[in-house]
Write a structure and sequence with these properties.
alpha/beta; about 35% helix
Length: about 350
């Protein structure tokens, strides 16, 4: 029976991956730091028989060799996630995400573990793919003056007109626009360097907006889905920033788990030194306002409030083309938007975390 190590395997996405892997016949080893600002209580979820759970931090070089020794493949989910509260979070992002990945990869090299599935994110692209009437172009960063004035749509520097958003593919250049995004690019670059140096095989999964059961609630580092659901849980209306027309691809966590299992199998058939990124999205574009309204309706809660607020570092539109993962890995999402929202409206969430400044998946 092959052995899989899932870092961050007690977290939101990691626990679903571990659970599906156990059901699929893997021997699963979970390592998680159980940081109280994410988990609240530990363990957060019982994966069941077939999985061993080890409390450790992947940045701890004294522990990492024991963690990776004897495994066939690593699914690296552990990371500090979200946009962050302020720039004071930057050292923790870099340490957790980039240093942690470097420590893990070095241990894999020492112990002859040659297959990796890396959790990345849509944030590596920055603003998504756009065109104006001349053709494709990269959207410039939105100015504070425009955001303050409620001018949220990116404007073409060539024509002065609003840009048209399109689906983005994996060959788009990196354009990180916040600290978290920068560290995800760093993780990808480290993984590619490791593959070249060791002959390893890497599948990089760039998640779009993941939602579903076991999301963390009550933390400023969570995504909008968790923030909206947490508000409804408190009997409050979800607060939607900007004008609510930001386009996103909301993908259910069980579909993300199945994409990871497909990627694990894919790594076993690739030539040495291969690194390949894959977008993981539903292929079904919705606005943030639509998501909030659908969730409120499904939960029987108050209608969302569109506030006009903004956060520097947020991007306007980012939606994926997931054609590559469908064509090359044979993966298809199984949870539709309406069914996913209906389940999420009442699904159990991770208990409220301790009030600290850091977050880890």
């Amino acid at each position: 029976m092959p052995t899989l190590l899932v870092t961050g395997g007690a977290g939101f996405i990691g626990s679903h991956i571990a659970e599906l892997a156990v059901a699929s016949g893997w021997q699963v080893r979970i390592v998680d730091s159980f940081r109280p600002d994410v988990h609240g209580t530990e363990p957060a979820h019982d994966i069941g028989s077939g999985a061993s759970v080890i409390k450790a931090d992947i940045t701890d070089q004294s522990r990492i060799d024991d963690l990776v020794r004897g495994v066939d493949v690593v699914c690296h989910q552990a990371a500090k996630v979200g946009l962050g509260v302020d720039f004071g979070d930057a050292p923790d992002y870099v340490h957790s995400n980039e240093t942690g990945t470097a420590v893990l990869l070095a241990a894999m090299a020492r112990n002859g573990v040659g297959r990796l599935v890396l959790a990345s994110s849509m944030v590596v692209y920055g603003e998504g793919r756009y065109t104006d009437r001349i053709g494709p172009l990269r959207a410039p960063a939105r100015s504070i003056d425009d955001l303050e004035a409620g001018r949220f749509e990116p404007v073409s520097p060539r024509t002065g007109e609003q840009l048209s958003p399109e689906l983005i593919g994996e060959d788009a250049p990196f354009d990180p626009r916040n600290v978290y995004a920068s560290t995800k690019v760093g993780q990808e670059n480290l993984a590619a360097s490791w593959a070249r140096a060791t002959g390893g095989r890497v599948a990089i999964l760039r998640y779009h907006n993941v939602y579903g059961p076991r999301m963390p609630m009550g933390t400023p580092y969570a995504g909008v889905a968790s923030l909206f659901r947490s508000a409804l849980e408190r009997g409050e209306a979800p607060r939607v920033f900007e004008d609510g027309r930001q386009r996103r691809d909301f993908v259910h966590v069980r579909d993300v788990a199945s994409a990871n299992l497909a990627a694990l199998e894919w790594t076993s058939s690739q030539r040495a030194g291969t690194t390949r990124p894959f977008n993981v999205g539903s292929g079904d574009v919705h606005t943030i306002g639509e998501f909030a309204a659908s969730l409120s309706a499904a939960a029987g809660g108050s209608a969302p409030i569109v506030t006009g607020e903004y956060r520097l570092g947020d991007v306007r539109h980012i939606t994926a083309s997931s054609q590559r993962i469908r064509d090359e890995l044979g993966w298809m999402p199984a949870v539709g938007f309406e069914d996913g929202i209906a389940e999420f409206a009442t699904a159990p969430l991770r208990p409220a975390a301790a009030s600290t400044r850091s977050s880890r998946a």
